[in-house]
Write a structure and sequence with these properties.
This protein has helices spanning 110-121, 220-231, 421-441, 521-524, 567-570, 581-591, 605-625, and strands at 6-11, 29-37, 43-49, 69-75, 80-87, 98-104, 149-153, 160-164, 172-175, 190-193, 198-218, 238-240, 254-256, 259-268, 275-286, 292-303, 311-325, 331-345, 348-375, 387-398, 445-449, 464-469, 473-487, 492-501, 515-516, 531-532, 536-539, 542-548, 571-578, 629-634, 640-646, 648-649, 652-653. By secondary structure, it is mainly beta. A hairpin with a 4-residue loop joins strand 4 (69-75) and strand 5 (80-87).
Length: 663
């Protein structure tokens, strides 16, 4: 069979390998077009004689039992261009002598293949599940957003792969313009600028997590250290006329936002229980006349151990005596009664313990922004007029929640995400998103040319083309489309190949170790080190762009839950003591000024009782106005924090597929 004529064989779906048995003519093909565009399956449009039965009636090509698969092959001389496809529609012009059939090389299991292939591509930094909700993670097309890749359908095997849109995986097809096979036809050459390149992509993203932690902080020393000095308390104690052991916070008492008392104990240094003692004694005295006189004394006391600094707010002394006489006027007996009463306001000396327990649930957000600039040739007079794009809809899921069994934040106590190794991978994903847009849009030049038929078996959408032609100069680009067509009217086979060429300046970025700012690398390695002027390539093996990993700089209240917390770490407003004992004393003395014990001879028990009651009321009312308070505020365990990070990113180096500036 001469070159340029096709084979056509109807086949069963299972005939997936082309063999000699398929080199036949089940249909007479009058004209055809075999074409494939980037991202789509190959299609075959064939014009054949209208199928009829012996009676001349139209045969239903899609009827039951009818074969709808075909092998098509075109002899190009040195090799065949082969196509396997499935009939996809009702033939057109069914009442004409010739009908048009359309076949597509689309795998019947395309969904399963795409899912399986997508799973292999879910790799950082090109794919990052933390910026995708659960439903979008299931979409296989989302996988390619960070890649400069596109789906590729093999026209023979129907195996689905991905192919890079800048550099083909299966090699280079060269048209050098010198050798006979390296020449292209004069007609069919064209060069167009499809669109203006992107010069910059501005990216902003939000990464959020719930900072979680539980633990305790012993506040005892902190409180006593300040309160003891302010109240002039004894060593390790707090002094007050109103702050007692009973008023100290008890366990489970809330003491702040997300705080409660984990351990609260307090005891009085002095026992203020009122105790009674009674002592009696009898003395017998013999007189000169042989008589005996008995003298009896009784001593009673109601008292407590008065703490140092206590105030006496009332005092009364009674001294009564009586002498009895006989008829002769001689003294026959003597009795006396002495009593003293003191009203004391005790100064409480308490020794407290306070351990605060916390449960942190704090919403943290890191706002990351950067601009990635493409190193591309301008196609406008003023390079400043280049297009820019903004990506500002990137938001993470809650990084505390597990994805595939592991929380992206790792330890939920962390203050920063993007400064971690996993956070750096999320940054690299953002760079990958911006890089993909810039790379694809840098493929501005599209060149179409007509190769000789003998070269068409080499052409696939997984290859690049190197073209040298006097009218366009030199170009290297990815094959983005091809077609082979036979016009039945003249029998000529026409071939076309289209390539997309980037217009970058080429070159590559270089990784820089940077200068350590903490201490020598030998001492701590790089994990805990901080650097100046460090540049890390965004992915191993890709030298197109680099960035400086950010240092953790959270805009929060400074609590580091990864360390043992001290009182100083969690105090928001420092402790102050309101109304220490000296202030209380002054206020009480002022409130009771002029209120004195009645000293008139007529003063009786009722008046004294009223005096004591009034004194108690005055002192009690005064104390309510000057209660001792220890006031401080603990840092909130439910606050929200937001930290801004502006990343330093290098320019994006883009290959020079075509030099617009060449003479």
């Amino acid at each position: 069979m001469p070159a340029g004529l096709p084979y056509f064989a109807w086949i069963d779906a299972g005939e997936t390998t082309f063999g000699a048995e398929h080199m036949r003519w089940d249909e007479a093909v009058f004209s055809f077009t075999l074409a494939q565009e980037e991202g789509d399956p190959a299609t075959l449009t064939a014009v054949v004689r209208r199928p009829v039965n012996e009676a001349g009636a139209m045969v239903g090509l899609l009827g039951p039992g009818r074969k709808i698969w075909c092998w098509f092959a075109l002899d190009c001389g040195p090799a065949l261009v082969k196509f396997r496809g499935r009939l996809v529609g009702i033939p057109t012009s069914i009442f004409e002598e010739l009908v048009t059939l359309v076949f597509v090389a689309r795998p019947f299991d395309v969904v399963a293949q795409k899912e399986a292939l997508a799973e292999t591509l879910r790799v950082l930094p090109y794919y990052d599940p933390v910026v995708l909700d659960k439903e979008r993670r299931k979409d296989p097309d989302v996988v390619l957003e960070g890649y400069t890749k596109i789906w590729h359908y093999d026209r023979e095997t129907h195996v689905l792969t991905v192919s890079d849109e800048i550099t083909g995986e299966d090699g280079l097809v060269e048209f050098d313009g010198a050798s006979e096979t390296g020449k292209i036809l004069y007609d069919g050459l064209g060069l167009t600028l499809t669109t203006g390149p992107l010069t910059r992509v501005d990216v902003s993203a939000e990464f959020t997590w719930t900072q979680q932690a539980v633990g305790t902080v012993d506040l005892t020393s902190y409180i006593i250290g300040i309160a003891q000095f302010a109240t002039e308390g004894q060593a390790g104690s707090i002094a007050s006329y109103t702050l007692t052991a009973d008023s100290w916070p008890k366990n489970k008492t809330g003491i702040g936002d997300g705080w409660e008392v984990a351990e609260g104990r307090c005891y009085e240094n002095y026992d203020l229980t009122l105790r009674q003692w009674t002592e009696s004694a009898t003395l017998e005295v013999e007189t000169g006349d042989g008589q005996t006189i008995q003298a009896t004394s009784t001593h009673s006391r109601n008292s407590f151990a008065i703490p140092p600094g206590s105030m006496v707010v009332g005092y009364d002394i009674k001294d009564e005596w009586n002498v009895s006489y006989n008829e002769d006027g001689d003294a026959t007996g003597y009795s006396s009664n002495f009593s003293s009463t003191a009203s004391v306001l005790p100064l409480h000396h308490i020794t407290p313990t306070l351990v605060a327990g916390y449960k942190a649930e704090r919403q943290c957000t890191e706002l990351v922004s950067f601009s990635l600039i493409a190193d591309v040739q301008p196609i406008l007079t003023d390079p400043e007029d280049g297009e820019a794009m903004r990506i500002d809809d990137v938001r993470s899921v809650n990084l505390t929640e597990a994805i595939d069994g592991e929380a992206p934040i790792g330890d939920p106590r962390r203050r920063s995400y993007i400064a971690t190794e996993r956070g750096n991978q999320s940054i690299e994903h953002l760079i990958a998103l911006a890089r993909a847009h810039l790379m694809k849009r840098a493929r501005v030049v599209e060149i179409a040319f007509a190769p000789k038929l003998a070269r068409m078996p080499e052409i696939t959408l997984r290859k690049n083309v190197s073209l040298i032609e006097p009218r366009v100069g030199e170009a290297v680009g990815k094959i983005i489309g091809y077609s082979i067509a036979l016009d039945g009217s003249d029998g000529r086979v026409q071939c076309e190949v289209r390539i997309g060429c980037t217009i970058g300046y080429g070159g590559s970025q270089v990784e820089l170790a940077g200068t350590p700012t903490y201490c020598s690398i030998d001492y701590v390695g790089t994990d805990y080190q901080q650097f100046n002027d460090r540049v890390v390539l965004f992915d191993e093996g890709d030298t197109s762009v680099g960035y400086q990993p950010p240092e953790a700089a959270p805009n929060d209240d400074g609590i580091d839950f990864l360390s043992a917390l001290r009182a100083e770490d969690v105090i928001d407003i420092p402790l102050v003591v309101e109304n220490p004992p000296r202030d209380q004393q002054s206020y009480i003395l002022q409130a009771t000024l002029g209120h004195t014990l009645p000293r008139t001879p007529a003063a009786d028990e009722e008046e004294l009782q009223k005096y004591y009651e009034t004194t108690s009321e005055l002192v009690g009312a005064a104390l309510k106005q000057v209660e001792t308070k220890l006031i401080f505020k603990l840092k909130s365990m439910t606050r929200e924090f937001e930290s801004d990070y502006e990343l330093q990113v290098t320019d994006l180096k883009i290959p020079t597929g075509y030099d617009l500036e060449a003479a």
